[in-house]
Write the structure tokens for this entry.
Amino acid sequence: MDALREIGNIGSGNAASALSALLSCPFTISVPTVRILDYSEVAGDMGARSR
């Protein structure tokens, strides 16, 4: 779980740095949230967000 969180942090940081360089303006990012869910939780969560 910690490895996935760290991969997300690194990817987000790299994306923010690239956007900042391309657009010549600073970007701030928030730390992504990682949770392990059952399939039923994923389906229910995605359905709730699409409404």
